[in-house]
Specification:
8 strands, 7% helix
Length: 183
């Protein structure tokens, strides 16, 4: 539990930035398309330590609708997401589709660049040999860049697991790129 709370509490302590860098001036909505690849099962540490990545034959596609908000005066966004993981070859039978809600906060914002983290529950259509529950939690770290007032690019890492609610909980880890459009 400490491994989950410490990064999020440190984000709250880092300090508030004034404008929401994940949305352009006056924009109240955003849609994002994310594409990623599997980087193996295992702990959340793979989110921040690429030395442990082991590329797995999976492609993850996410569509997200977001609205801006603040959490303790820190710029944030609330997200509604649909996610499809397509596994093939040696990872066969690890495919799933799911829906989720999540919240992202920005820890650092400078000159169009921003760094943040997110957390939220997701519901999947099946259970498999890596995670034996349909309810999973998603944790995400991302680095973003504002290209224009309407367009953003983000590089992210994402972890899905069930928080040890069941005995089988190897977790899914992904890394990828996201393109967001605010309106």
């Amino acid at each position: 539990m400490k491994k989950i709370l410490i990064p999020f509490l440190s984000i709250l302590v880092i300090g508030a930035v004034t404008a929401n860098p994940m949305f352009g001036d006056g924009h109240e909505n955003s849609v994002t398309l994310s594409v990623g690849t599997g980087i193996g099962s295992g702990s959340m540490l793979k989110l921040v330590y690429p030395g442990d990545w082991e590329f797995v034959p999976m492609t993850m596609i996410m569509g997200t609708y977001s609205q801006p908000m603040t959490i303790f005066k820190i710029p944030a966004r609330m997200n509604a997401t649909i996610v499809q993981n397509i596994a093939y070859h040696s990872a066969d039978r690890l495919s799933f589709i799911g829906v989720g809600l999540s919240w992202d906060v920005v820890a650092f914002d400078w000159n169009g660049w921003y760094i943040g983290a997110g957390l939220g529950p997701y519901y999947r259509d099946n259970h498999d040999r890596w995670v034996s529950s349909r309810l999973v939690f998603g944790e995400k770290f991302f680095i973003g860049k504002n290209i224009t007032d309407d367009l953003r690019l983000e590089m992210y890492t994402l972890h899905f697991s069930n928080g040890d609610l069941t005995e089988t909980n190897r977790g899914f880890n992904f890394t990828g790129l996201a393109v967001g459009y605010s309106f």
